[in-house]
Protein: ABC-type quaternary amine transporter
Organism: Pseudoclavibacter chungangensis
Amino acid sequence: MIEYRSVSKEFPDGTRAVDDFSLILPSHETTVFLGSSGCGKTTLLRMVNRMVDPTAGSVLIDDEDVAKSAPVELRRRIGYVMQNAGLLPHRTVARNIATVPLLTGASKAEARERALELMDVVGLDRSMADRYPSQLSGGQQQRVGVARALAPNPNILLMDEPFGAVDPIVRRELQREVIRLRERFGTTIVFVTHDVDEAFALGHRVVILERGGRVAQLGTPDEIMGDPANDFVASFIGADRADRELRLEETPDGTLVVDGRGRPLGRLDGTGAGR
Ligand SMILES: Nc1ncnc2c1ncn2[C@@H]1O[C@H](COP(=O)(O)OP(=O)(O)OP(=O)(O)O)[C@@H](O)[C@H]1O
């Protein structure tokens, strides 16, 4: 269980990114922070592994204040996946995944074996183990990022817009992968996104945030969709919905993916996707 207790964050330049935020995130569930740019999602997420320390209040994991743990220790036991994967370019896929096991004393052989197992878990072919990140597609790099985050067997996985840079088809595959992972390992996931569909696809509970980390609504996707708390929530979850609804169209050249307004996004073989 992760608990935010009256947490605020004011940056040195006076920006108040989070203002008196309190919330309990149950174990083994996926909680999604959803909101538009600048509402404090990333700041809240980073407080869990002390990449950001609150200026007031506290964050607790299983009733223990994270301020009592050294940041390095927290970051080794809490998985963190960010946009663009953040891989080390001069290390192979296997070495990237094995980063934490190697730091915490695994032998090279053990770490490599663990990396290969995790490649299976995230759906990457083992033949890619000795490639460098630049030799992978964006979606494959994100899978490596997820595998690396899983390497220490974390109870908690923090995911900060992890699939923001991949095309809609790969994004859906990766979302399905996240659902499989949490079912398999029971991981507590905190997921940040500004994509409404992604939030509703992944979140057991979704927290819709306004500026300053103010909670506009908290609930299951069904609760929020069925009964938006106010006009802000209604317009946020309704905005451009048609843009995001994807469907498949058969054409003489193959299967085309189009959005709700009929605009082509790409082909199912992966060519030309993305906007
Ligand atoms: N190091 C910093 N110094 C000053 N202000 C910051 C710093 N980091 C974030 N902020 C500000 O705090 C607010 C919240 O930022 P945060 O990154 O948490 O938002 P976000 O909801 O994750 O946005 P995005 O979706 O754009 O990443 C913003 O106004 C941002 O400019």
Q: What stands out?
A: Residues 145 and 199 are 20 Å apart (CA to CA). The chain has eleven helices and 13 strands.
